[in-house]
Design brief:
This protein has 79 residues and is mostly helical. Helix content is 78%, strand content 0%.
Length: 79
């Protein structure tokens, strides 16, 4: 007996409430089948990207530090 025939045989024995659950489960299976698996991340590439971003972040932070310090001094009334 094929899988389809087995399913039809089982479906014939179910109540309406049980059939509604089967419909929900089938909808879930179709939804799950459409999902793309998450790609495998290349750790070496991520490390290189992280390093490049860290250097850029540090440069930007240091470039804005004098203005930040000046703003803090103005808030405290010492500048």
């Amino acid at each position: 007996m094929s899988s389809k025939e087995q399913v039809v045989q089982w479906l014939d024995t179910l109540s309406e409430a049980e059939l509604a659950e089967v419909v929900e489960f089938l909808a879930f299976l179709k939804f799950r089948a459409r999902l793309q698996p998450m790609p495998k991340l290349d750790e070496a590439q991520l490390a290189t990207l992280y390093q490049a971003c860290a250097e850029e972040d540090q440069t930007l932070a240091e470039a804005g530090m004098p203005e930040y310090m000046h703003g803090l001094c103005q808030e405290e009334g010492t500048g």
